[in-house]
Structures are given as structure tokens and as C-alpha cells.
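FORM 7B: Structural annotation worksheet

SECTION A. Query
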Amino acid sequence: MTRMSRRALGAMLLTPALARAQAFPTRPVRIVVGFAAGGPTDVIARVLAQDLSQSLGQPVVVENRTGANALVATEAVAREAPDGHTLLMSTLSHSVNAILVPTARYRPLEDFAPVSLVAKLPLIAVTGASTPFRTLPDLVAAARARPGEVSYGSAGNGGSAHLAAALLATLSGTQMTHVPFRGNAPALQEVLSGRVSFMFYPMIGIAEQIGRGGLRALAVALPARDPAFPDVPTTAEAGFPGFDEYTQGLGILAPARTPAPVIERVNAAIRASLAKPETVQRLTGLGAIVAPSSPEEFADFLRADLGRWQRVITAANITNQE
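SECTION B. Predicted structure
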């Protein structure tokens, strides 16, 4: 067979999907984040995008498309072309919105192709320095003694702070009052002032506030104590084992039917980024746990996550109107 014949045969055997994958990316890639710039999800997405721009050979930009606890962003990406040029940075809201919002126009497992888990965001329970709560058991005891008087802040209904505190109330058999805000920052300000009793806050960016003395850390939702907070007990040490299993995972999703070779290329680029010591240092310095995975492992995580949060939402009787 001549060289020309071999080339012709190769071209015939090359599937359209593989051809597209070999050309990918042909233009800038977008990572859509459903939350405002400067928040934990956005910060991690931007660290990742910087590395991916180099490894993929095209600009990788972060687009903040806020609204309805990331529902707007999720629905938008589900409708994008399945070519790898538009990706979603997913959080637990990916599962929670599908459970809580009857009108959600996406299916969390069927309408997306998992690419990779990126990081986990453990939470830390904090209270204002002016409150009487020195430990998590102190707070729970107050909630038992005065049902509904202990309040907790969150960035909105169905977010990680809301669900974590609802889980604590369920596990402790207490009644606490949820006070939602439009973002973690305003919720934290109310906790600092003492007008809201406590909140679970992502460990990203909280160390400075605790260090200044305005906040008191009560517990970290981790299996072991965090080196950044060596004197703060874990939720298990505070009497609530298994709490750390509900740590929020952040990952990258593509629209369903994105070609497998494209998924594999983006996955490889993400894993390479998260293997770089400087990237690991930046993310761990922010309080995140670096957690790259294969697409199959991320799919397993998403299936388990859907079940985890369904159990919490059912047990705590959480509704979309709360």
C-alpha cells in the first residue's frame, strides 16, 4: 500500500467525534461559575483556568452567571453544544437544585458528562466573639433549651451553609432558625455582629477573620484536625461523627454527549494542573482539599452526592420556599 493510500484509509476510519477531539480546542474555553466573583467556587475556577490555558493552548476564561443558587448557570450549560468549549464548575447545588426545584430544566446525572472532581471545600462552624458559645456542644445545648432561638446564617436556601446547619439540627434533634442572605459575606457580617448565632462557612478565606478575633471557631467538618486550626476540634470530636462525609465537592462538568476524547483531554489537563506543587499550595493555602479524579470516579461521586443531600433535605424537611 502506498503512503497516499494509507493516509486515505486513515482519513476514512477517523470518526467525526475523534476528528473534533483532535482539533479541540479551536477557540477559547469557558468555565461557567454560578456564583459571584470572589467567592470560593470562583477563586478555585480561576486558579484552574490559568493552568488550563497553558496546557490546552487556548484561553480558558471564567464566566460568572449568577442566579438561583447556580440554577441559571447549570441550565445554561446543559443546553450548550457538547464540544468541550463550555464547561460548568459544579458544587453541591448541582444535586440540591435538582431535588428542591421542581421546575429545574436539567437532570443532574443524565444531562452532563463528568470530567473531573477538582477540590473539596470543608466547612468550619463559627460564631461571633461576643456570643456565649465556646464549643459546638454549648451551641447545641442552647438550641435544646430554647427551641428556635439559636439562628444560623447562609448564602441562601439550599447552599452548603444552610444544609450543613440543617444537618446539625437534625443530628442533634434541635430546632434552629435559618436566616438566608444573598451570599456568604453578608451572612458572615451578621454572625460577626452577634445578630445571627453562628454559621458554617467554607474554610477558604476564613482564617484571617478568626485570627483577628472577631470570630470564634467551634468545629471543622473534617475527619482530622486542620493544620491551619490545630486547636479547633472536628465535628466528630464535638460529638457528631460522620459529619465530614457531607463535605462539598467542586468539579468540572461538560454537556452530555461531549466526545470521550475531549473529556479525556480536559481531564488530563486538570489532573496535570492539580499535580503542580504551586497549584496545590495555592488551593490548600485557601483551605481547599485538592481532589482530582477520573471521569468515572466523579460520576460515582455525583451519584452518591445526590443520595446524601436527598437524605438531609428529607430529614430536615427543607423546601424551596424556605
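SECTION C. Observations
The chain has two domains: 27-121+248-316, 123-246. The domain at 123-246 is CATH 3.40.190.10 (D-Maltodextrin-Binding Protein; domain 2).

SECTION D. Sign-off
Analyst initials: ____
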